[in-house]
Amino acid sequence: MVSASASETEPSPLSQEMDILLVEDEVLNRWLFAEELRAAGFRVVEAGSADEAWAYLMAGGKADLVFSDIVMPGAMDGRDLCKQLNHKFPAIKIVLTSGNSGPMSDVKYERFLQKPYHFDHAIWIIRKALRT
Amino acid sequence: MTQPTILLVEADILIRNPLAQYLRECGYQVLEAIDATEAHALIGAKESSIDVAMIDANAHAETAFELARWIRQNVPEAEIVMIGSVERAVKEATGLCEDGPALTKPYNHQAVFDLIQRRLAARKRHQDSEK
Question: What's the domain range around A111?
Answer without folding.
Answer: 19-131
